[in-house]
Amino acid sequence: MSEPLSVAIIGGGFAGIGAAIRLKQKRIDCIAIFERGREPGGTWRDNTYPGAACDIPSRLYSYSFAPNPDWSHTYSGSAEILQYIERMVDDFGLRPLFNFGHNVSGVRWDENASVWEISFDGHPPVRARAVVMASGPLANVSFPSIRGLDTYEGHKIHSARWDHDYDFTDKKVAVVGTGASGVQIVPELVKVARSVKVYQRTPGWALPRTNFATRQATKDVYRRFPATQSLARNAWFWGHESVALGVVWNSPLTRVVEAVGKLHLRRQVKDPWLRRQLTPDFRAGCKRLLMTSDFYPALQKDNCTLVTWPIARISPKGIRTVEGIEHQADVIVFATGFDVSKTGTPVPISGRDGRILADEWSTGARAYKSIAVSGYPNMYFTFGPNSGPGHSSALVYMEAQIDYLVDAISYALARNSILDVREDRQREYNVDLQRRLQKTTWNSGCSSWYLTEDGFNATMFPGFASQYVGQLKSVDYDDYTTSEYRPAEQIELTATV
Amino acid sequence: MAFDFDEMLVKIKDKQWALADIDWDAPGSETIGPELWTKLKPFMSDLMWIENVGARGFAAMAQKAPTDTLKEIYTYFHAEEQKHANAELALMRRWGMLDGDEIPQPNVNVKLVIDWLDKYSDQTSLAVLGTVIPMLEVALDGALVKFIVDEIDDPVCQEVFKRINSDESRHLAVDFQVIELLGHAKMRKIIVETVGAWMNPSLIIGTLRYIPLLNKMRDNIVAMGVDEERLYTAMRRFKKVGERSEYPKRLPMFRFISWHSGVVINRAHPYHKFADALVRVTARYPKRLLRPQPTWSKELTYEPVA
């Protein structure tokens, strides 16, 4: 019988890689990363559509413990971010930890052995003393529920599963969705396609995005004096923190953000009707802010049309909208985002006493500080419930989660113990959290992927990034129950590392 | 039983049809004789433009809808009115009434209303739009559309207007339900909103454009050979249906529109001296005072596919 893994990390994207780096730095060696794909990178491996880029400055959209002085622009494209991820994997020697092609089919707590048993499709199960669920909220693509979707005879592409073999030159293209990926794809497609029709359901608040190239001299300074890079990162961090005052809470500063959005729209779009179609009717921040200076000009190109009529159905040759016209297209691009689970779990997880996490989360996911769930010992979530940022970098939140879970796991492994968050602390935390969420823009009346159909917000953190980071600064072990790890020797399972 | 807006929205989605569902080249266009053809062209043009105006009205109402469901319903109605206009344009095309890619120009009264809608409709309250639009729809549905269905034998036209009628019946059901809903508000709120609306010059300007539009419509209908009593019956229906419940009567705007429709159908009322004078005045309205036609009114197309 082989020993269980110390830590199993599920997901080989930013969070899984960051967790592995930090665990290794703590000299926790018996770890493995289980990744369903064939390469590391998660969201950034999957999102390679033309124009794919991050709308958070690269200095902030990177780990402070893995600084990169070479970012070419203020905002990086997906290829450069993926290079950064690959470099981290190599620099920190993570490649041997990866188990590619491992699609997790279930995670079960074995009370007798005090370990987690992880099952896979087509691979033998493994055991681990701790699990990091780093599967990410943006892992599964979402197609809209439109009638006739399957009847379409042309080519269908989802933004997160881009078909690089498809040649858009001189094609009639339909783009469904005008969210974060839609506004990046459209400006690229209008450059090559014969026509692009952009189907918008709800316009979002768009702010200008100025993307400067980083001078070589700046890169040299960052390389020679890493403290300067850290300073730049801090400047971006606090700059974004100030934006929270207008974006997270419904405040007079929200009006300022809206005024910037309206000015941006007015400056770029002259036709009043088009402007009206592009003006949101909800408070800025309620849905994700769009950062783009290219989308509005692209929409006004001769070969581009914004379609705001509701879609009636998809027909074999195109999209029928309610004004009665069939808009025929050679290809439909679905920039319709991801299936962000607010009520279920990424994989079936059963904890103590046979409890099923998906059942407990059926009315909305709840966790303690977004990271641990009572009854699921030694299991930690990155990007768990209510850890979404509305104004800052996901990587800032992720780094705080990683440092917290690494501390907790180190503590448990060093003391041969099992940590399980107390139910009362988890409940108190969530009561307070939901109370605070009521005052945020996300709960101000629009429907968005942040909320369940019942309006429950299981996604966002209602505060500054510094508050989120602060609450995860250290593990308060009083919030946890501790029991002793007693491995059961009779269990025969193989750990694959 | 309470009206279920969610159920209505599902029904609206289920009943969608497209121009591509109709065989525009099917036989039957020869049933339009030369005399009818000549009269029908301006009539269809007016009808199409009034549908387009109604579409814009619904777009404005969608912004003020009190619930997401009603907002979505109005978004659909906006598109459906545009569909009706497109279908009517396609019929004109079928009957050879369009010269090449020509889109008939709206008459001056429609132009004035387009101009008003473009400038003011988004700032106008749901109580105002929610009572005026049903009035226009009742008139359209009850007189103009009915006239076409009765007088024109072309089977394609019959099919198109059967579908349009089916859509309009849902529009009216929602329209009257919303009027009733508005009537449930506290009287103090209703009064404040009404006084506020009339304090705004845009509503007075709008009324001065709406009055000649109705009388002009009447004149056009009469010129077509339609019995104007048909229009009046339709307008009476507005009051009658609205007053089935006590709540619409609490709305001053509903009472005003009902009163106004009563006056419009009374040819002996001195109001007509004023309204007909407005028709004559607006006929001479200097075109240079009109702002450029908004892009929303240029989205009409007779092509089933694009």
Automatic annotation (TrEMBL), chain A:
<dbReference type="Pfam" id="PF13738">
    <property type="entry name" value="Pyr_redox_3"/>
</dbReference>
<dbReference type="InterPro" id="IPR051209">
    <property type="entry name" value="FAD-bind_Monooxygenase_sf"/>
</dbReference>
<keyword id="KW-0560">Oxidoreductase</keyword>
<dbReference type="GO" id="GO:0016491">
    <property type="term" value="F:oxidoreductase activity"/>
</dbReference>
<protein>
    <submittedName>
        <fullName>NAD(P)/FAD-dependent oxidoreductase</fullName>
        <ecNumber>1.14.13.-</ecNumber>
    </submittedName>
</protein>
<dbReference type="InterPro" id="IPR036188">
    <property type="entry name" value="FAD/NAD-bd_sf"/>
</dbReference>
Automatic annotation (TrEMBL), chain B:
<dbReference type="InterPro" id="IPR009078">
    <property type="entry name" value="Ferritin-like_SF"/>
</dbReference>
<protein>
    <submittedName>
        <fullName>Ferritin-like domain-containing protein</fullName>
    </submittedName>
</protein>
